[in-house]
Specification:
The chain is mainly α. The chain has 9 helices and no strands.
Length: about 150
């Protein structure tokens, strides 16, 4: 399935964000928007949490069994979700979130095998470890410090 046309322009931005070590700032922004817009997301709220958990585990070096293309698509999808000026601006009542939901649904469907592998990895972890891996600290700076060296 082809990527949504409005999503494709986020891929180079996602690559730069990851290279610059700015994933923590993105994850905090996504958490904030998800908390404020959660009731408009429906089932995709759980999918959004899964994508955030994947990014946290990836950032902390706990989960690397994902292709570079897949993590790039996840980050680009989260960036699209955050952008207020995408295909349908978020400030348009009743319509603004439709394209965000469509892009996140596309990411979930397109990366189904990779996300299934991540779900299986999560199920194999003990709950205490998973709580630490998926915990969002108080600030993005604290999360930046948690990135493993090397």
């Amino acid at each position: 399935m082809k990527a949504p046309w409005s999503f494709i322009r986020y891929l180079p931005m996602a690559k730069r964000l990851i290279a610059a070590g700015r994933l923590p700032a993105l994850l905090f922004a996504v958490a904030g928007k998800a908390a404020s817009d959660g009731n408009r997301l429906g089932k995709l709220k759980d999918d959004l949490k899964l994508l955030q958990a994947l990014c946290l585990a990836y950032w902390r070096g706990e989960y690397r069994a994902i292709s570079g293309k897949a993590i790039l698509s996840v980050v680009a999808g989260l960036m699209y979700f955050l952008s207020p000026l995408d295909a349908i601006p978020d400030w348009i009542p009743g319509l603004g979130m439709l394209d965000d939901i469509a892009v996140l649904a596309w990411v979930m469907k397109n990366l189904d095998a990779e996300l299934s592998a991540f779900r299986a990895w999560r199920e194999r972890q003990n709950p205490e470890k998973l709580a630490v891996v998926e915990r969002l600290p108080a600030t993005p700076k604290l999360l930046e410090r948690e990135k493993p060296k090397g």
